[in-house]
From TrEMBL:
<keyword id="KW-0808">Transferase</keyword>
<dbReference type="GO" id="GO:0016757">
    <property type="term" value="F:glycosyltransferase activity"/>
</dbReference>
<dbReference type="Pfam" id="PF00534">
    <property type="entry name" value="Glycos_transf_1"/>
</dbReference>
<protein>
    <submittedName>
        <fullName>Glycosyltransferase</fullName>
        <ecNumber>2.4.-.-</ecNumber>
    </submittedName>
</protein>
<dbReference type="InterPro" id="IPR001296">
    <property type="entry name" value="Glyco_trans_1"/>
</dbReference>
<keyword id="KW-0328">Glycosyltransferase</keyword>
<feature type="domain" description="Glycosyl transferase family 1">
    <location>
        <begin position="222"/>
        <end position="354"/>
    </location>
</feature>
Length: 428
């Protein structure tokens, strides 16, 4: 199937917010192995393309914007009654003929503000003329501003801004605007859909974080755990895997764990990583839920601290069961990025810092001043993890700041918007 995006852009400056929305939709299609067709005016300077618009998989088709050798100057017709300029219909016919040629091999076409904006009235009418000659072509008409009140009286062609077009679904960024959208275009609410704007948070991340994202889905999990440290048994990586597994197994949450590790002389890295994975899998995680940044060749000796902080901005749960800490700087780093903290209460430094940060405490083996403590769980460690997994999950879910952070990453990601809202309309 072929899909097109009709914008009638005169330029691709990213300071125009709609350009960013379209760029996001283009990226969604490309990441799903679709090759979009982009329709802009013939005066749009393609040599000024930047970012995703440079992708060679995009097919550019420029729509005519002149008649008899003279450029068509758009006029803003926001009123519902009155007259249009003398050459309006001649210009609309020329544009319509070109749109038919540009869309005749397309299955579905997304339009942005073509039916809404007054200065696009000429394109609005041209598309309607083209649609009559392309009856099988499905249109998805986005409106990006607040719908206007439907006037009591309208006159053609100014009424095009308030008239439904056959085989067209009308779209607004939020569900709350659907009733007003339906009234503007005089269509049933069932012919309207909400497609939220997305936040492509990964586009603002470093190459290091993007490299991790290429290896593991870090946007969609309900619980994302990041644990940095030297790959030594004293850091108790396997306890992080165990609690994470208990959360997934007992709380019906999707969980991913990223270990930002660097080698230690205490134990062979592959031997310890094998143990950590084994504990994670036996506790409820799957192989795909665990990732070590050292598995990326470039970062086998360590992952940049700045990139760790970026990962903390995506994660929502920090677990530190470390056997010994003199302070625990990673706790502060995780807290500064809005993570729920679960710390080893038996380590004095973690207890001190954790109390200041209102952390949640659990008991693991620890080194204290002058002695070591060893925990015994009744009836079992498995039962202990289950109990605290449920408490932690409820506290994470009930924290409004962490909930908002998680939803922004998860629910409003381009992937979620594409697979749950936009793609189903294109494919139906």
């Amino acid at each position: 199937m072929k899909f097109a995006i009709l914008t009638m852009f005169n330029g691709l400056d990213s300071t125009y917010s709609l350009v960013n929305v379209v760029a996001e939709q283009i990226r969604m299609m490309l990441e799903d192995d679709m090759k979009p067709i982009m329709l802009v005016t013939e005066h749009c300077p393609l040599d000024s393309r930047q970012g995703i618009f440079l992708d060679e998989r995009i097919e550019w088709r420029q729509v005519v914007n002149q008649v008899d050798g003279k450029q068509i100057h758009w006029r803003d017709y926001t009123q519902a009654t009155g007259t249009v300029h003398d050459t309006f219909f001649k210009e609309a016919d020329v544009i319509a003929d070109d749109i038919v040629e540009k869309l005749e091999d397309v299955d579905a076409c997304i339009m942005h503000d073509i039916h809404y904006q007054g200065w696009h009235l000429i394109h609005n009418v041209a598309v309607r003329k083209a649609q009559k000659r392309l009856p099988d072509l499905r249109f998805i008409a986005f409106t990006h501003s607040a719908p206007v009140n439907r006037p009591p009286k309208t006159e053609w062609p100014l009424s095009a801004r308030f008239t439904p077009m056959p085989n067209t679904t009308y779209v607004y960024p939020t569900q709350s605007g659907i009733p007003a959208l339906a009234k503007q275009y005089n269509v049933p609410e069932g012919n309207c859909r909400a497609v939220n704007n997305s936040l492509d948070i990964l586009s603002f991340m470093s190459d290091e974080v993007k490299a991790v994202a290429n290896e593991m889905d870090i946007l969609s999990p309900d619980i994302l755990v990041v644990y940095p440290g030297r790959l030594t048994t004293g850091k108790k990586f396997e306890k992080v895997a165990a609690l994470s597994g208990a959360i997934k197994k007992n709380c019906e949450k999707s969980v991913k764990v990223i270990f930002c590790d660097f080698p230690s002389a205490d134990i062979k890295p592959e031997k310890y990583k094998s143990l950590i994975r084994s504990v994670g899998l036996s506790s409820g995680l799957e192989q795909k839920d665990i990732f070590f940044t050292s598995d990326i060749e470039e970062y086998k000796h360590g992952f940049p601290r700045k990139a760790v902080l970026e990962l903390f901005s995506l994660s929502n749960l920090f677990i530190c069961p470390s056997f010994s800490e003199s302070f625990g700087l990673t706790v502060l780093e995780a807290a500064s990025k809005g993570n729920f903290l679960v710390l080893n209460e038996r380590v004095p430094a973690l207890e001190e810092v954790g109390k200041n940060l209102h952390a949640y405490f659990m008991r693991w083996d620890a080194r204290n001043f002058g002695f070591n403590s060893h925990e015994k769980y009744h009836p079992s460690e498995k039962a202990y993890l289950k109990e605290h997994a449920e408490i932690v999950t409820n506290m994470v879910r009930g924290n409004p700041v962490i909930h908002a952070k998680t939803m922004a990453r998860q629910r409003y990601s381009p992937q979620w918007i594409w697979y749950n809202q936009l793609k189903p309309m294109l494919s139906s």
